Amino acid sequence: MAAEAAASASRPPATTPGLLERCLRSGRSSPRDVLLDVLLLVALALVLMATGLGLRDPWPADEPRFALIAQDMLRSGDWLIPRVGGDLYADKPPVFFWLLASAMALTGSMRVGFLLPSLLAGIGTVLLVYDLVRRARGREAALAGAFMLLLTFQFVWQARQAQIDGVLCFLTTLSLYGLLRHVVLGPAPGWFLAGWVAAGIGVITKGVGFLPLLALLPFAFLAWRGWPAAAPRIGGLSLAGLAVMLVTIGLWFVPMLVATSAGGALLDYRNEILFKQTVTRYADAWHHHEPIHYYFTQIVPIFWLPLVVLLPWLVPRWRKAFRERDTLTAVLLAWVAIVLAFFTLSSGKRGLYVLPAVPALAAAAAPWLPELLRSAWPRRVGFGLATTLVTILVLAAIYFAVDSEAAGRLFDDFGLHPVLPLAIAGVGGGAALALLRVRDGWLAYAAVLAVALATTGFVIYPRIDAVRSGRAIMERLEQASAGHAELALVGPKEQYLLELRRPSWNFGHARWRERDAESADA
């Protein structure tokens, strides 16, 4: 096959096998081997994503708002129209809040439940990438692609936050997976329709959930040009897919229309969520203004590390794959370009908007990752990144140890003595470097990243939580009011409402007071 030829051509000289290479080299693909792969990936995902779970409350800007909405759904029983601080919340459809409320109800804990949807979505996305690549390229490439996705900073960091984009990333990846299972790896019409259903759920999670469907445009063009395709004619099935997507959206959309038909504030809610928060927000955003090069100069080069450092080796291989008419690689890369272009054209930009492109980029790189991960220079690059991270941690610890004034300011602001956690992460990362060395450069990077994230979750989170969450302020308020005085709040921020432990009179809240100037919503 052309893809196999592209993956095996121009292999660099062999080097001494490292631990990672030995893990990747097994050519077997029995159900037992696949199950072991899945367990390994889930374990690694938990190490990177779940450390600190349950040790902090929701933090601004977005998390307290979303947790409040979920709490309101549980208390009021109204899961149709979100409310926050007593006000209608028209910024986003309700699916993410349903997940938060369900997780909080099932776990009986806000601290665990509010982070659970993002964590499970992150794990699910990794497994989707693994399965897609395994079916197309084999088990070795699948493991390498999923491993590199787990190391990509933006992806793993968003899985640790209670923001909509992590769940949206899972839904867009699921939609893309379903479409590609049919048009490239199929035929599999059931999966094709499932891709449309996932896109529909994505739309009522965050309006841009339709983006995976745009991958059908480059596929149709390539099929028309005669590139290999399992299902080159998809017009009729796409109409069926459109129908099931509209039905999926309608499960929330139609009841919402009925509920808001009474007019008044509900009508304003409907108009805002259908028009202002979609078309207007994209075409004429009122905040998050960034230059047109924002994603290419400030997000991709930093937050897509370490995947992007392999581009000098990947780009020539992708060019060869294009010449050999590798349809899967071409469609995946085209969709990454579509996502970047779509959000670049909007005047409002945030780094997390382009998160859905990361799994597709990892899948597009996967066929060549086993070769690169065993090559000398890419290994050195991985070890160099790990060394750089450890160096930053150690230098930061030394800086705060020497500059007591700077350390004191950090303690005054957040209640954190920074030297100890930085030293723990630096020493732990240094031990990983000494143990694994250049031969296992990418495992060294994974270990250093895991140590840094574990220190963040187990040491830093608990220390700064009272300040970051607003709990400290509300505890002082409770003490000042002697716990029994009647309490009235004017324009409070969501984190204070969330930490309030008794009834109060609420005269609007921050979103009402600062509506036009709001700058931190998702």
**Spans of 5+ residues with little confidence (pLDDT < 50)?**
1-14, 513-522
Structural class: mainly alpha
Roughly what is the average pLDDT, rounded to an integer?
89
The Cα radius of gyration reads 24 Å
Shape: globular
In summary, what is this structure?
Helix content is 67%, strand content 2%. The protein is mostly helical. The protein has two domains: 29-53 and 115-373, no CATH class; 376-469, no CATH class.
What does this protein structure show overall?
With 522 residues, the protein is an all-alpha fold. The protein has 2 domains: 29-53 and 115-373, no CATH class; 376-469, no CATH class. The chain has helices at residues 2-8, 19-24, 31-49, 63-76, 95-107, 110-113, 116-137, 139-151, 153-158, 164-183, 189-203, 216-224, 235-259, 265-283, 294-303, 311-323, 327-344, 357-365, 369-373, 376-402, 404-414, 419-436, 441-469, 471-480, 494-499, 510-513; strands spanning 83-84, 87-88, 488-490, 505-507. A two-stranded antiparallel ribbon has the order 1-2. It has a two-stranded parallel sheet with strand order 3-4. Helix 25 links the parallel strand 3 (488-490) and strand 4 (505-507).
